Amino acid sequence: MNKPIFELKNVTVLGNKNSSNVTKILNNLSLTINDGDFITVIGTNGAGKSTLLNVISGALAIDDGIILHNGRDITNLSEEEHTKFLSRVFQDPQLGTAPRMTVAENMLLALKRGERRFLVPRKLKQNRERFLKLAKMMHNGLEDRMDTFTGNLSGGQRQALSFLMAILKKPDILLLDEHTAALDPHTSQSLLNATREIISQDKITALMITHHLEDALNYGNRLLVLKQGKIIADLDHNAKIKLTTDDLYRYFE
Ligand SMILES: Nc1ncnc2c1ncn2[C@@H]1O[C@H](COP(=O)(O)OP(=O)(O)OP(=O)(O)O)[C@@H](O)[C@H]1O
């Protein structure tokens, strides 16, 4: 524990660069993510939460600062190179899965994240038990739809599959960008519980953006509050368990 896996040092991201109205979307932000951290991230609309995840995933280049992965400077590493050690689940159930492939085929492709990918039927057979076991952990009938095209799944099942695809090959960091926000309350809760169970079982380091203050308190061992491109609170487990949603709400005032 407490081994830094990912470090952002004095990271600034500018907006409206080609205008006279340049803004700092991330403003001299520093963050150390330690091995095994499960960090929930909250903040007002426009605080910079998605931008932070875009920077960590390599989708967005920074304008100033340094980014380290296991001590290696990866500030200029391409997004594709990032996929070798990092995965992300988005809010939109349409993203993240190939609709004309079956659930099992999608899972097989995910096993090869960051590598050249071919579908080998023999490998599907070899991995079927493991895929089924994982699908059962989602508690939404996904295990009965292993040979269904993902385009025919419910939103909740597709999002559960996106999550499983993100963890099948254990990432150094898992980024969850409001991954349950488009789901109904029951389905959302069920996916969150499965998320916690698998993150804990596989000891995955994760960052999860949420707009639900209760979820931010109930999940993870650490909580970040972002405001205007800065981290205004970085609360560890001991600080977090003493807080109520009302305490968190004050950060939004
Ligand atoms: N390419 C860009 N150029 C200029 N401004 C941008 C750009 N991308 C994002 N922004 C602005 O940066 C700010 C942060 O956006 P970001 O999407 O990171 O916020 P967020 O905290 O994820 O918000 P939300 O909760 O609404 O999803 C917003 O004001 C947004 O309009």
TrEMBL record:
InterPro entries: AAA+_ATPase, ABC_transporter-like_ATP-bd, ABC_transporter-like_CS, ABC_transporter_ATP-bind, P-loop_NTPase. It holds the Pfam family ABC_tran. PROSITE patterns: ABC_TRANSPORTER_1, ABC_TRANSPORTER_2. Keywords: ATP-binding, Cell membrane, Membrane, Nucleotide-binding, Transport. GO terms for molecular function: ATP binding; ATP hydrolysis activity. It is found in: Cell membrane. GO terms for cellular component: plasma membrane. Its main location: membrane. It is a peripheral membrane protein. Residues 6-253 form the ABC transporter domain. This is ABC transporter, ATP-binding protein.
